[in-house]
Structure formats: C-alpha cells, structure tokens
Amino acid sequence: MYTILDPDLQVCGILDLNGKGCKFYNDLRSTKIADDQGKIWVDTLDISVPYGYRETDYMTFGYHLLKQADDGFFYCYRIGEPEDDVVGPTHVKRVHAINLLAWDLTHKIVPAKTFKAANSQDAFEYILQQTGWEIGDNDFFGGVKTLEFNAGQNAQYWLDNLTSQFSVEIRAHVQVHNGKVIRKLVDIVEELGESEGRRLEYSHDLIGLTRKGSDQEMYTKLYVYGGTNSKGQIVSIASVNNGREYILDEDANDIYNNGGDYLEGYIVNDQILNPSGLLDWGKTQFKKFNHPKFNYTVDVAYLGYTPNLGDHIQVVDFSMQPELTIAARVIQLDESEANPTNNKVILGEFIEIVAVTPAIIWELRAKAAQAAQEAAQAKSYKIDYSTPDGTDFADSNEKRIIIRVYEGREDITAKIPESNFVWQKINTDGSHDTNWEKRYLNAGNVIYVGNEVVGSTIRCQINDEISDPIIFATEEDAAYFLTFPMNANGIDGVNRRVVQYAQIDHPRNHVYYSQVYGGKTHRPPDYQTTESFELSRCTIDGTYMDSMLCLHGGHGSHFGIEYVNNKLWIWSLYRNPSNLIYHVVKFPYQPGKIIDWGDSSIVDMLSFSTTGYRVNLDVRNGYVLFVNGIKDPAFYVCKKSDVEKKVYKPIYTARGSDINYFGVEQTYQSACLDFPYVYMTSGSADIDDDQKCLYCFDIRSKSLVYRIVYTFDKGTIEPIGAYRECETISYYYDSNGKKWLIQGFGFSNENVEESQKTNQLFRINEHKRGD
User: Fold this and answer.
1) For position 379, what pLDDT does the model report?
2) What is the mean pLDDT of residues 471-495?
3) Closest by alpha carbon to 470, among 137, 712, 767, 176?
4) In a 3-state reduction of DSSP, which class is residue 341?
5) What does the pLDDT read at residue 215?
6) How many C-beta atoms surround the C-beta of residue 746 within 10 A?
7) Do residues 219 and 267 lie in contact, with contact meaning Cβ atoms separated by under 8 Å?
8) pLDDT tens-digit profile of 339-390?
9) Residue 45's CB: how many other CB atoms inside 10 A?
10) DSSP string, 38-68
11) Which residues sit opposite 25 in a β-bridge?
C-alpha cells in the first residue's frame, strides 16, 4: 500500500491492491548505498496507476507517495516524469519518483564556506540548513576533516561528496502524525543493516542467482597521490614508503595476473596532505582494486527471506580458483509489492576474507606432531589500525590511533599486556625518534598524538606473548547478593513486574531499582504507546524503603546514578508525549513523588528523534553510555561534561556485531560502562530459548575481553524454576576501591502457583591478570 500526499505533505489518497483505494501496477522501489566506486545514496520509486480514478489525477508533479518499508521507517517520494503506458488492456499513468530528500537538496544551493575541523554533524547540518530536513541518528563516523564548500553547487552534490568523504551511509525518512508529515530526518550511520551470520554459495548455472564481474579496474601496482601542499607540490607517499610513489600486491599479481607485469593504476585524494595518512588511505583503497570485482544479483525467492539494505552476507564463490570468500553486503535492494517476483538484492563485495583450511582438518590428515609444527609455522598476527578522529595530523587537535590485533580471524587484543604494544615513530630519514617512543611505553593499544607526528611513520609492534585477558570473570566468581522486596507497598500497591535495572549506592548502602509501571491509578491515557516505570529504593540487605513514579519514562531498562549536594540524581531516558521525541534527562530521586514530562525537577540535557537512546552513567571516569537498537545494538560513549552542556558528540562507538553478538538469536537486556569497558547482558526468560550471557568489551578497540555463558550448574547462581531472565548489569566500587559487577536475574516464584517473579542480584568478583 502507498499513501498519496499533496504538495503540503498531507494525506489525500491511497493506492492499494486490496480495494481500499486505487489499484496500482508494476511498482519498484530501488535503494542503493554503494557501487563499484564506493558509497553513494540513491532511492527511487516507479509505479503505474490506471486511469479513471480520483487518485490518478494526483500522480503528477508536486505530489508525493509515502511507503512504510519492512524496516519500519516511512519513506517519502516526490512524483515527477509522468507518462502514459499500457499494462495488458489497461491504460495507465506511469510515474518516476525520487526520495524527497534528493528533490529538496537538488533545489538548494549551499553557500561557500571553509571548515578547519568539521565532524559529520557539522558538515551535514551545514548542507541541510533551510531545507526542512534535520539530522536524526548520527554515528559520527569519519573523524574530523578540513572541508571547503565551493560556491555554485547544490546540497545534493555535497550530500554525495560528504557521504564518500566521511564513508558513511544515510537513511532519509519522515515521521507522520495525524495524516501529515511532521518531521524530515536524515540518519547518518557507519553501516546500515545487520550482521546475522548468513551465507550464500555461488556456482555456475544456479537459477535465481547471477554474477557480474570485471577486471577492468583491477590493479596490482597502485600509485597514490594526495592534494597540493603549500609549496605547490603534489603530495605523494614516497617519503614514508621507501622512496616509492606506489604500493604493490605480489600475491594478487600471482593469483589474478599469472605473475606477469604488474597492472598499474593510480588514485588521488586531494583532501589528504599528510604522506602517512595518504599511505594509510591508499592501502585501504588498494583492497578495492587488487582483484576482479563481482556483484551478485539474487532473487529474494532464491534466498528464502528478505534482507534489509546494508545487511552482511558472506558469499563463497566456488567458481573461482582458488575459491573466493567475500564479506559482501546488500548494496542495492529492489522491492515490488505488486510483482514480488521482481524483488531482488544485489550483493557487493567490500572486504575479502582469506579462505583457510581449519587446523582441525590438518589434524585429521596428519600426525599430531606434524600438524602442530605446521600450525606454528603458519602463526601470524594481523594489526588493524584506525584513526577515528581523522588522519590530518597537521592541525592542533590531538587524534587517537587505535589498533586491534588478530590471530587468524580471532581478535586477541584483550589478551596482550599493555607493555607488549611497542609504538614506534620513524622519521623521514628512517631513524627512530627514541624520546617519543619512550613516552609511549606501556601505553597499550590506544594512544593520542599531535602534530609532532607529521611527516613521520607511526607503527606498532606486538611482542609475541598472549595470555588470559587483562580482566576476566567466570560464573564461578558469582555469589548471591540480595533478593528484592516481594510485598513492598509502592506508589500504587505491590508492583509485581520484573526488576529491569538496579544500581548500588554503596556509600549510603542503598539500592535503586526500576520496574515497568503496570498500575491503573496513575497511568496516562497513552500508556499503550509510551511506558512508565516505578523507581524504588531498598537497603543493601533488601529491606524496602520508598518509591517514586516516572510517567512516560519508558521501560526503565537502563539508568545512571550520581550523588551531588546531598541528592541522588537519576540519569535516564524520557519521552515527551506531545511529539513522541525522546530526551536524555536527570532528576533527583524524590520518595513518593509522581513526575511526568514537564515536571520542574526534570533537567533536559539532550533530545533525539522518536528513536530512544538508553542511558548509563560512568561517574568515576566522566563518561555517558548511550545504547540504541536491539538486534545489533549500537553503543556510543560521550564525555559527561559534553552532555551536561547539551552536546552529543560520541568519541567512541561500537556495535554488538563487532564482538560476535547476534541479536537475532539473543535477547539484549542492559549495559553499563566503566571506561574503557562496556558490560552487556542478554538472555530471554525461557530456559531453552537463548543463552544467558554477560559480555565485557573494550569500547576503544571494539574488542571482546571475555564472555560468560551462564549455565547455572556451578553452584554459585541457583535459579528458581524455569523462568530465568537476565536483566541488570551494573557495578560498584567498595570502600577499598575494589570493583564488583552486579548481575540481575528474574526467576520464578518459590510458590509455583504465584505469578510474581523473584528478582535477585548476584555479585561477581572480576579479576585482573596477575591477581
């Protein structure tokens, strides 16, 4: 079904296949996020409607079509290019429409301006000004860049330019209320879609699956050039690449070019003036050119499911020798409601994964000693560098260099002692800057550098030693902590709901905990669309004290606490019921108080779109954690001081898929931050539904430190009945400075005829290596 909107973006008609409005034919929505040249954004709609209906007259310039897609978002298309056509015996009007963002931006000229240090928020806000569009979600990927907006170009030109420069992907959608578009939003993310571990095998003669490839732009010798420096010279990589202006890939030349003369090409990025940064960029781009490029077009009927734009799907191409394993993504999605046989996805390759024979195969083929020897010979580390603040080190702002270390495909960063990350600074003459290197001894895998590294090469050597993670815990380290009050007479009697989250205020021996409010006395009229939660307090031995009620405060699944000036402040998500916008707020805990949006005690710090960001507070280190999404949750870390100034500027980000968390098979529950470590717990209530887990990962390098899979057979956590739902994950520091993790569970009731759950906390003793 499609909804027709008039020039004022108000509903004026319906197109429907089931008789609720005018019928339509041959619709095709086509959305693309990349092609063989890199990231782009295209979103179009073609559709035909028969003559003789009122709605037919609306299929003309200035009107719009609204479609709610499978991802839940509403997309608005501006109609243009109407033409007459025939479908069988039916005379139809066929129209081509484009996403309203593209139409609006094509008709807006961007004034000339230069930014010295612009992040994605700055840049996209500048081109969207006075267009009616605003930024919704922004992952702030791409670092800080020097940008020059030249006069005479429209905003669509700059949207394409910024999408490529920041290497981001966008989603342009609208929000509708009471039959009218009320907001036009552009989400800016590093990646759309999800990673669900899906796999597609390609070989010749498969019905519903075709491959298109080319080696026209395959190079095994790539010259890399940057912009023009202050001396009028074109920047090259020679000064940091042993005098060579090019990079080679001998393996690719042997595999795809039979070891012949190198296939030469060149690339240019006139925005990069630093040779080291240019070399890093060139190596990244080389991955796109050192092999034949393939796109795979797949009928959705062949897949058996409909993926979303941007989803990861591993393609194993058995027609290639050697066989090629590709980490592909859905780069184009074609959908038709009238003709589902036209539903297709195009999978494009981004990063190749080397296909290896698992060690277990060798053990079956040879003696154990021989297999061990071969495995030792094959052992190697791969170091992945990232610079989230950009690679232009010439400005005055410090920038982070972060590395992740892999052994094969396993991320082993957390297993390496900080002293074994040996940072090196190589001057242009090849000598080592030993004074600089001494300053970064024992610095670990994340360092901050300034303009002292301009013109030099920075690299990190890993000493050959791995062991257990820096910090770790197991289910054996857990112990019973408390059971929450079962018969507490709260704001509206006994709240029988599961405890969603809990925080320990250790200096005062208090525990604050949240439950969804299910009472009827104070529930607002829109309680079915916006939840409320009850916040209670008990002593550290589980004795109930008091409660307060937070109407329109949401599910209560995350919150933070901070004690300031003899008041305990709660940091939480909150929703404005009048426009459904989510906010990040703080308010004092007030026993017996019922608050709602607009209460004078609520301090509004940030506002988001209708997508809520769950909140946790790391007071000890001065950070705020935001979490968005369920299937592949996104984690954002901001400075607490920025949030208090109403500035949302994530400095570290990660996703669940970075640590092999798959939300399709696991149920996300809650998270907390003790920088740099994020703790996340997952697990549904059913005993056999999914694993009950605790994850610990380093937000800086996106590396998993450890994971606990609760099996409840260690004698430390003793469940009650078959209901076993992970809920809280938090922590506190005791008077001796020792950190204790707090894991919460909702269990069945000891009285099998009683539906109220037993809510318990367990304390986990987390160890440091060497303790």
Assistant:
1) 44
2) 90
3) 767
4) helix
5) 64
6) 23
7) no
8) 888 888 887 754 333 333 333 222 332 333 333 333 333 444 567 777 777 7
9) 23
10) EEEEEEEEEEEEESSSGGGGGSSTT-EEEEE
11) 48
pLDDT at 313: 78
Report the alpha-carbon distance of residue 451 to residue 399 in Å, rounded: 9
pLDDT tens-digit readout, 276-286: 878 988 888 88
> Which of 766, 703, 699, 695 shows the shortest CA–CA distance to 726?
695
Please choose, from the candidates 35, 31, 176, the residue with its C-alpha nearest in 3D space to the C-alpha of residue 98.
31
What tokens appear for 700 in the block?
């800086």
Q: Is 596 helix (H, G, I), strand (E, B) or coil?
A: coil
DSSP reduced 3-state for 437: helix
Does 612 or 67 have the greater pLDDT score? 67
Q: What is the dihedral of CA 636, 640, 641, 644, to 10 degrees?
A: 90
Written as one letter, the residue type at 644 is E
Lowest mean pLDDT among 270-284, 290-304, 388-402, 607-621: 290-304
Tell me if 273 sits within 8 A of 232, measured CB to CB. Answer: no
Give the Cα separation of 382 and 409 in Å (integer): 9
Structural Rg of the chain based on CA atoms? 28
| CB atoms near residue 186 (< 10 Å) | 23
Peptide bond before 322: cis, by omega within 30 degrees of 0? yes
HSE-CB of 23 using CA atoms within 13 angstroms: 13
Q: So what's the pLDDT on residue 371?
A: 35
> Could you tell me where the beta strands, DSSP code E, fall in 373-518?
381-386, 399-407, 410-411, 421-426, 446-449, 457-462, 471-472, 478-483, 499-505, 510-516
- Tokens 């479609």 map to which residue? 67
Residue 742, SS3? strand
Dihedral over Cα of 688, 690, 514, 560: its sign:
positive
Strand partners, 493: 490, 491
| Token duo for residue 152 | 């005479």
DSSP-derived secondary structure letter, 493? B
**In a 3-state reduction of DSSP, which class is residue 481?**
strand
> Cα dist. 652→146, 280, 543, 678 in Å?
21, 21, 39, 11
340, HSE (Cβ side, Cα atoms, 13 Å):
7
The yes-or-no verdict on residue 118 having pLDDT over 90 is no
Pure H helices in 183-335: 250-257, 275-289, 300-303
Query: CB under 8 Å to 13, separation ≥6 — which residues?
Result: 3, 4, 21, 22, 54, 55, 58
Q: How far apart are CA 384 and CA 161, in angstroms?
A: 26
Q: Using one digit for the tens of pLDDT, what is the confidence trace for 682-717? A: 988 776 667 889 999 989 888 888 888 888 888 899
- Residue 257: its pLDDT value, please? 79
Which of 286, 281, 276, 285 shows the shortest CA–CA distance to 221?
286
pTM above 0.85, yes or no: no
Task: Give the per-residue SS3 of 100-144.
Answer: HHHHHHHCCECCCEEEEEECHHHHHHHHHCCCCCEEEEECCCCCC
Burial string for 702-739 (b: 16+ CB within 10 Å, else e) reads bbbbbbbebeeeeebbebbeebbbbbbbbbbeeeeeeb
Report the run of H or E that residue 700 belongs to, with start and end.
Answer: none
